[in-house]
């Protein structure tokens, strides 16, 4: 069954290979440590940059949260005052007691209101940031070179668009509250307790000092690096699990589960190793931190210190009450700080990845748009390098005369796909230029280019939409009759008629398509575009004889009279091409008709003999 993508997916990678970079969990080199620190600092800068437009509202949320946190202390103070009143010798002053209760209740109410307002504001900002980031990412993903997707897995792209954008939620919607409470509540409690008895306040601060010290030990650069390695390992699991699922059909076909799933298993093993290392490195300290910050430990210290002061007569017993209630409030936010920092670090890493994706160079839009005159295609001294310094195409000069078929042949890795993909601008050449109708393709506006150049590469992507919408993808306002005519010509109409909802059947829901059917749908798409120039990857080796005959028939209809550039994998299909171009190591090494090249006894003749045996003659037909 062919791959079906949700409609919202812009496009997708076909060769999902996750990065194999694995940051070692131990013994970091100085350079690795510097790189990690740089990455963290960069993540922080990115995060600040992302949040800058919302700083006013985030500050307002912080202020509301701070006042709310202070108001939240009122009920505790009310209980303390009430306790003092009730424990004091003599008759109870009912007026004072009720005043404390009212103040406590009012504080509680205010806290609820302000915290809700701060949370609501945070969530509003969060919603806006999400929307704006997703829009920017969608816009950028729609402008990046199509070729950018070919070395990225859909898991990787989805991890940023979905996962990393979601990771920012905690930071924006919840972290301000946690951090404000972590600062405001202990500070106010400290001041109050110090006014009651500074000596017992110092005792109550012991767990805080211990907790902060342990937390500092837990937040070393080493720990941060390990955390990043765990995050990266998790990312690789995400990417490879998508590949794993996408590759299941291949595994079933070839029965090589062990080999094919090696990457997934390695990613899972790596994650387990990093995670265990991360947990093992912090388990002791984390337990110690939990212990010293726990209410029983705090109360034990305060009770012991308080008992000493009370028994020696230097503190009234009623003064112990505020310590019993507020000393725990002193430490609780320190505990929250640990989780909060983890979330902030995760958000920094996400911001960095989002920024990286938003920084992908888009294909430049034409500065001086030009209209092609005619359909003549010309590659002029074209060179291309995926990576600086490693050119895969050198000095290609090639002309496709209108209405002719040019077949590209050559060994795997010769550069055939790269050469073909430069015409529909999957990438722009790093040297030279590609011209269509005399205009550089870089100067032809996208809409114009894609009306003139249609391409069918190996993997026909289908959207989770109706068959009619899938066929009319590039011509959304096409009439139903035009869609049907294209489907008929592509040999798809009879199949569609058997479906429950005909052309309105939703792919991936009402029905699925086989590989051959998907290819015919791709042909119907191209027919509807009616582009005069076609770039085809003739990848039909998987098809059985009947399917191949059907696809060939459909291609015959599609290709008639058009200028074609065909990547040929099987030589018998190119014998009637107007021109055969043999490529090796990124260069054109031979060019001519089948008979000319066979008569010359050069590379094509060698390849022919290798595929068909000595003395074999042509058996097939080119797409004409
Ligand atoms: N996205 C990419 N990033 C880096 N290098 C790439 C990328 N795609 C292809 N290459 C390299 O460019 C060279 C040419 O590859 P290309 O796919 O164009 O060859 P091909 O002749 O079409 O091969 P095949 O017949 O196997 O598809 C190869 O060395 C390949 O490894």
TrEMBL record:
Residues 377-610 form the ABC transporter domain. Residues 59-346 form the ABC transmembrane type-1 domain. Pfam families: ABC_membrane, ABC_tran. Keywords: ATP-binding, Cell inner membrane, Cell membrane, Membrane, Nucleotide-binding, Transmembrane, Transmembrane helix, Transport. GO terms for molecular function: ABC-type transporter activity; ATP binding; ATP hydrolysis activity. Residues 1-38 are annotated as: Disordered. It is a multi-pass membrane protein. It is found in: Cell inner membrane. GO terms for cellular component: plasma membrane. It comes from the Bacteria. SMART domains: AAA (SM00382). PANTHER family: ATP-BINDING CASSETTE SUB-FAMILY B (PTHR24221), ATP-BINDING CASSETTE SUB-FAMILY B MEMBER 6 (PTHR24221:SF654). The chain crosses the membrane at residues 58-80, 100-125, 275-300. Residues 1-17 have a biased composition (Polar residues). This is ABC transporter. Belongs to the ABC transporter superfamily. Siderophore-Fe(3+) uptake transporter (SIUT) (TC 3.A.1.21) family. InterPro entries: AAA+_ATPase, ABC1_TM_dom, ABC1_TM_sf, ABC_transporter-like_ATP-bd, ABC_transporter-like_CS, P-loop_NTPase, Type_1_exporter. It comes from Streptomyces rapamycinicus (strain ATCC 29253 / DSM 41530 / NRRL 5491 / AYB-994) (Streptomyces hygroscopicus (strain ATCC 29253)). The keyword Methyltransferase does not apply.
């Amino acid at each position: 069954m062919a791959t079906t993508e949700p409609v919202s997916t812009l496009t997708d990678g076909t060769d999902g290979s996750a990065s194999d970079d694995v940051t070692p969990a131990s013994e970091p080199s100085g350079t690795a440590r510097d790189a990690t620190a740089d990455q963290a600092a960069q993540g922080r800068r990115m995060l600040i940059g992302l949040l800058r437009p919302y700083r006013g509202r985030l500050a307002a949320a912080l202020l509301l949260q701070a006042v709310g946190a202070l108001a939240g202390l009122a009920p505790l103070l009310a209980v303390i005052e009430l306790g003092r009143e009730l424990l004091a010798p003599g008759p109870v002053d009912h007026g004072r007691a009720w005043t404390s209760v009212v103040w406590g209740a009012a504080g509680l109410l205010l806290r609820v209101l302000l915290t809700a307002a701060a949370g609501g504001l945070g969530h509003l900002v969060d919603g806006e940031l999400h929307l704006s980031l997703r829009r920017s990412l969608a816009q950028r993903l729609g402008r990046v070179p199509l070729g950018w997707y070919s070395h990225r897995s859909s898991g990787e792209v989805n991890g940023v668009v979905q996962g990393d954008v979601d990771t920012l939620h905690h930071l924006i919607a919840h972290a301000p509250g946690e951090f404000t409470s972590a600062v405001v509540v202990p500070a106010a409690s400290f001041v109050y307790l110090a006014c009651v008895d500074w000596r017992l306040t110092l005792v109550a601060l012991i767990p805080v000092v211990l907790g902060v010290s342990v937390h500092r030990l837990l937040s070393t650069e080493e720990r941060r690096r390990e955390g990043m390695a765990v995050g990266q390992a998790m990312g690789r699991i995400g990417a490879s699990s998508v590949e794993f699922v996408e590759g299941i059909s291949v595994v079933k076909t070839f029965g090589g589960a062990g080999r094919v799933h090696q990457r997934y298993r390695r990613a899972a093993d790596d994650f387990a190793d990093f995670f265990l290392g991360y947990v093992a490195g912090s388990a002791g300290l984390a337990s110690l931190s939990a212990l010293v910050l726990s209410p029983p430990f705090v109360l034990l210290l305060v009770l012991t210190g308080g008992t000493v002061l009370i028994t020696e007569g230097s503190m009234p017993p009623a003064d112990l009450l505020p310590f019993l209630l507020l000393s725990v409030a002193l430490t609780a936010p320190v505990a929250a700080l640990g989780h909060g920092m983890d979330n902030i670090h995760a958000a920094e890493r996400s911001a960095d990845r989002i920024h990286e994706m938003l920084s992908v160079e888009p294909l430049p839009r034409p500065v001086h748009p030009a209209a092609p005159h005619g359909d003549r295609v010309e590659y002029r001294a074209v060179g291309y390098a995926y990576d600086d310094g490693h050119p895969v195409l050198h000095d290609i000069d090639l002309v496709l005369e209108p209405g002719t078929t040019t077949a590209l042949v050559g060994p795997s890795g010769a550069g055939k796909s790269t050469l073909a993909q430069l015409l529909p601008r999957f990438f722009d050449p790093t040297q030279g230029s590609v011209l269509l109708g005399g205009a550089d393709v870089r100067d032809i506006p996208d809409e114009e280019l894609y009306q003139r150049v249609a391409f069918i590469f190996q993997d026909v992507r289908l959207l989770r939409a109706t068959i009619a919408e899938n066929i009319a993808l590039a011509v959304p306002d096409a009439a139903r009759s035009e869609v049907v005519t294209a489907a008929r010509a592509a040999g798809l109409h009879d199949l569609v008629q058997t479906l429950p909802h005909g052309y309105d059947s939703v792919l991936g829901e009402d029905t699925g398509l086989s590989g051959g059917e998907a290819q015919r749908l791709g042909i119907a798409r191209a027919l509807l575009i009616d582009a005069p120039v076609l770039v085809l990857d003739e990848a039909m080796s998987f098809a059985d004889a009947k399917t191949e005959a059907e696809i060939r028939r459909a291609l015959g209809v599609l290709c008639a009279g058009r200028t074609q550039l065909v990547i040929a994998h099987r030589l018998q299909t190119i014998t009637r091409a107007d021109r055969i171009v043999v490529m090796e190591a990124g260069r054109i090494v031979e060019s001519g008709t089948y008979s000319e090249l066979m008569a010359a006894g050069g590379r094509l003749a060698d390849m022919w003999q290798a595929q068909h045996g000595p003395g074999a003659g042509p058996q097939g037909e080119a797409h004409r």
